[in-house]
Amino acid sequence: VMEVILSMNTDLTADEATLLYIGLTTDTGCFQYSNTSAASFRAAAELLRLGADNAMVSTVFFRKVSRARLKLESMIYSGLQYFRDGKIAVATITLEMMEKAGATEDDCDDLAGLAGRVEGSVLNITIREQEDGSSKISVRSTPEISSSDICAVFGGGGHAMAAGCTIYGKPDKARDMLLSVIDEVWK
User: Fold this and answer.
1) What are phi and psi of 156, to 5 degrees?
2) How far, in Å, are 5, 7, 57, 61, 75 from residue 30 at the CA level?
3) What are 86-116's pLDDT values in tens digits?
4) Is the predicted pLDDT of residue 22 greater than 90, yes or no?
5) How many CB atoms lie within 10 A of CB 116?
6) N or C: at which end does the chain have fewer Cβ atoms within 10 angstroms?
7) How many alpha carbons fall within 13 Å on the CB side of residue 41?
8) How far apart are CA 187 and CA 171, in angstroms?
9) pTM for this predicted structure
């Protein structure tokens, strides 16, 4: 988008540069994800030159969270389950946890990445209970196993290292179904 705007010989305002910088930093996980490239850094440098507010973006999007989010994260971390000698980490978020934490949808950004912080994990699953009795599944993996192949079994999709699906059932049932599929997909 930045390149299109600049190719039209139109200047970006500092606010516009900040908005584009938000998109760039969130899409690259603050430049941590594998989609980060030299072009990403060049774009970031150009957006900063045009007045993007890096300090504000870093604070608002990457450094500060609500108290409800911190409480929810503590419950998620304390409830992590491990399988295959720690290579699989499963995080579950129930409706009860959301209520106890006082968390809202605004507190749920990027929860799928939490289980992946565990040293030695290769496959990370986040299961989030939904009001309709289903479970929303987010799968993250390293290149040795395809997240997409796992989620495809349940009608979901994504790409090799990040995919999602919905399983109709409570989180424990969804976890057991996923682990069964993983045993078939990841020999």
Assistant:
1) -95, -170
2) 23, 26, 10, 9, 25
3) 999 999 999 999 999 999 999 998 899 899 9
4) yes
5) 18
6) C
7) 6
8) 24
9) 0.82
